[in-house]
């Protein structure tokens, strides 16, 4: 997943690319919710990323232990743990990327929107601190319900006068990770070669995988496409049920979160053609936020890409997801402006 970094005689960090080397800038990344089920493996994966020079691990409890543990891994970044609101400022100052997996996860029988009452307030508080201490950072929102927490973050930043739509991302990478895995199994393709865009949002039918655009092409029958779509939409629930009350996806989410943060860092560093799907401010449909392929660059979003040609089945899926996604977005906006 990551390449190695060496240090030059002048103390600069150099990234090895085949026989060539190039210098990599210093980048500070914070994980908010770093002691949680996602936060801990995500902290480890970010510690393994050579593009990170400082890693700030923040939570309301237990971060000193997580930070001490991760800090012993012999990779480039310096790790610091921060615990409690008093230390949030230190955790955030100077950040280039802030990843937010803070908040409660689902239990069997719940939908993501059932997390709104607790997580909306958590996200609102953390985003107010981001607006204050690192207003230029790219924000990777993992906390659910993403369809509402991203609009909440946008409203908080607007109120603070710091909103830049290029810098706010709902992390939907896990949907693409699942779609690729499930498609590779059905298509009998090498999973490492598979690509599947997933658009819309991040809950139930708002998750719309575009298997008609999957590569390599497999010409799967319609019933397989429908089954793959349903499994991708229900992927989170599959894990919640298997964990039987002990939370939701953590390891696959940490992997997905690390992939997306790495893409953000590469974009910031000027690597060309970095494209990932993400839930961002959008004009791709009439909805103000929508997940689609996004080109990442030095300022965050460089281009929100269109949907491309859809099959009739996908077109119908797109139309049926809009009312739910619209309501979730509006719920987030209303919460941010009322509380
Ligand atoms: N976007 C996605 O694809 C995706 C995937 C999986 C999970 N999630 C969501 O991620 C969130 C976290 O899941 P988890 O399994 O890691 O939960 P968890 O309960 O294991 O961990 C959450 C962590 O957040 C911390 N926290 C709570 N309030 C905080 C605050 N104000 N500031 C900082 N930290 C705070 C807790 O102390 C805990 O350590 C959930 O909302 C879950 O639904 C999203
Ligand atoms: O399903 C959940 O509640 C967690 C997450 O959104 C997921 O997709 O795994």
The percentage helix is: 40-55%
CATH class value of the largest domain: Alpha Beta
Strand percentage lies at: 15-25%
Count all strands and give the number.
Answer: 14
Strand order of the largest sheet: 6-5-4-7-8-9
Distance between the termini: 41 Å
CATH architecture of the largest domain: Alpha-Beta Complex
Strand count, sense and closure of the main sheet?
6 strands, parallel
- Tertiary shape: globular
Residue-averaged pLDDT: 95
Which topology of the largest domain does CATH recognise? L-2-Hydroxyisocaproate Dehydrogenase, Chain A, domain 2
Rg over C-alpha atoms, rounded to the nearest angstrom: 19 Å
The arrangement of helices and strands along the chain is EEEEHEHEHEHEHEHEEHHHEEEH
Number of helices: 10
List of distinct ligands in this structure: nicotinamide-adenine-dinucleotide, (2S)-2-hydroxybutanedioic acid
**How many structural domains does the protein architecture include?**
2
Unreliably modeled segments: none
Structural class: alpha/beta
Oligomer: single chain
What name goes with the CATH superfamily of the largest domain?
Answer: Lactate dehydrogenase/glycoside hydrolase, family 4, C-terminal
